[in-house]
Amino acid sequence: MKPAATPELLAPAGNLETALAAYDAGADAVYCGLGKFNARERAQNFTPDSLARLLDYAHGRGRKLYLTLNTLVKETELSEVAAYLAELAKLRPDALIVQDLGVLNLAREYFPSLVLHASTQMGIHNSAGVAAAARLGIRRVILERQVTLDELRKIAARSTLELEVFIHGSLCCSLSGQCLLSSALGGWSGNRGKCKQPCRRIYDAAGRSGFLLSPRDLYGVPLLPELRRIGVASLKIEGRLRSPDYVWKTVKAYRLLLDGPVDSPPELLLEAEKLLRSTATRRPSNGFYFANEYSSLIDAGRLGSFGVAAAKVGKYARAGLSVTALERLHLGDRLRLVPPEGGEGESFTLIDLRFQGKSAVKVRAGANCFIPGEFRAEPGWLLYKIGENGYDFSRQAAALPPGRHPLAVSLRLTAAEWMGTIAELPGECWRRAVDFAPAGKRPFTAGTAAAEFASAVPEPWSAPEVEAVVEGAFFVPASLLKTLRREFWEWAAQRLRPENLRPELAEALYRFYRDSRALPGEVPPAPEGERMILPGFTPEAELPALRKRLRAACDSGVRVFQIGALHGLELLREFPDVRIIAGFPLPVCNSEAVRELKCRGVCAVEPFAELDEEALAAFREKSPLPLVESDRSGAALLVTRLELPGSAWTDGRGRRFRVVRGNGLSKLYAAEPVDFRKNEWK
Fold first, then answer.
1. What is the rounded CA–CA span in Å between residue 624 and residue 528?
2. DSSP assignment of 375-406, as one string?
3. What are the pLDDT digits (tens) for 389-406?
4. pTM of the full predicted structure?
């Protein structure tokens, strides 16, 4: 049996401090976002400057950093996204995580040096979807969270791409990318990084009242051995809204287990579980990995917010909150105010605490105390502890030096001549005549050359990419190697200028601006005739049956097919004479996404349901394919593999919903039509 490889341990980072906590605890990589176009816009997030500082830190220690650009993008935002991509291409993160096919097309067309990972928001959940992603230029797929362990095993056996799965943290009730609930209730779209978490609120259905859409958290310790045997490339911890202490403890626990044998001994499991029990979470579960456990995944009787209930608000005043401590409170703790009915709440760090009229550093459970500050709260609200003091990485974050400009260095070394080039200095070449004797037992290696030339790089430059080719077997004295390295960098420093760095990126950005000004010209008509609609969700075991249905439809004369997910593109490759419509729930929001789909054989698109009238009008003007605009006011607001109870639902504000079950899915609909076009798509 093939030995299990150790997968990458990937941690979340909402800011510099959390990223440093993750690396300190042993994360191989972190994922983070800039201030816009990422699925956790409520996190503190990064600026280009702080990202550059963190990249230098990570790459200097052999770690990786992935950047999220994983939200849906309006037509009018494409220029801003292109500018983001140009900036990121300069910074060179290890990969870019994307959801929108338009962002993918922009990156691949204009900034091809960026490595692309498919976000879980793309909803890829079977081997056909993975194959489609490979054709799109994706290097890694972050799978849909509602894939079972058995399905994952089969997908991995058929995949040519790296696969990434979640191992720990909060879960969404809905299939990734298919939740419109937050958007329907006010325009705050989860697909835009602005989810208001309506799934964590109280609902009434089938005689029950509770948090009927709130899953327990994923706890992946029991899954580790099998995930390693399957050969998953990366294990992902959820939580870009989490605090440094949570991330440090969680990463440390999984690092302990991954560094040990595949089947962890009891003492190692106890040590890891002790760390994980000390973090602020919801009740644990195996997530969606086992279908026979779905009935116990919803924790309807517990408040949907994560963390430990640490205090209850007694009185609320403009000057602060009078609270009763339910757990120990300490200055530096991270707290979140949550209403009794659940939902999103305000988070803050406890920086001032009063007990019996005096300033206090900490109070015990049962103490009546006062928290000064301006808060939006009412009596009965709860304060959840979501992070503890004692894991302060702020000094380390403040001490990080300014980010350097990364350079791509290539060396060609022989016994008679050394040559070096830098990609950022096109047309320039450093040459040095040398005379090295043939090697005896220890010839000079490319690895030694790369390590030496990547060190002592003058500011403001760095050399994370040094490619060395050694021709012949010769010996290089250590002192002369350092001299040659110094001469190379002195030569480079005289020529390099930050303002002239990577001129091809400015040219690519200009090319995009020029291309984007052009109108599409005459748009062909949408296909007519009998249409077969492919399901947006097709589990791995159902792919053979779907292929047979497609063959039967083609044999009967059907030539128009509507796909709702990327796997449809792959399945229809077998039938080159068909016409394809890309429709809901496949998100198509801008002309760049249409261009991508057009290259894949699509001849018409249905705009994504959430687009408001303004976004739709801008999209319509630029689309190179016809827009098939159907009525999406009755679209499912949430789709899940869980069996939701009852059929008639209401929420705490009296809004009514209905549940329809079939084909292994539960779908939640609004009782009254939702006019997304009049909802500002925030």
1. 18
2. ----TT-EEEEEE-SS---HHHHHHPPPPPEE
3. 777 898 999 999 999 888
4. 0.89
